[in-house]
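Researcher: Next entry: NADH-quinone oxidoreductase subunit A (Jatrophihabitans lederbergiae).
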Amino acid sequence: MLSTYLPIVVLFALAFGFAVFSVIIATITGPKRYNKAKMDFYECGIEPAPMSSGPNRFPVKYFLTAMLFIVFDIEIIFLYPYAVESENLRLFGLAEIFLFIGTVFIAYAYVWRRGGLDWD
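Model: Predicted structure:
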């Protein structure tokens, strides 16, 4: 029974070994030229403020947009298998998809009601 999982274990071991090998080789053979520009903070192309001025604060809408994007991606990931197997799932699958889309719609309605989709 466990012998059927042997190829998967070997594949994971090879992938892990390749990742570790690549990181080690890159640190050994890579150039080590450090300068101020490489060691400085970088955030989406925005020039960082001096260290003494305190942390920069991003608007909440920035994070809300990121979370909505993640919810949208997860929605698409869950809808894809249904689209592939919609003929086999029949009425049960249709009911489950309506339940899922309804739940996501409630989340979007909440965000819309709270003003998360309004751009000033």
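Model: Note for the record: The CA atoms of residues 1 and 7 lie 13 Å apart.
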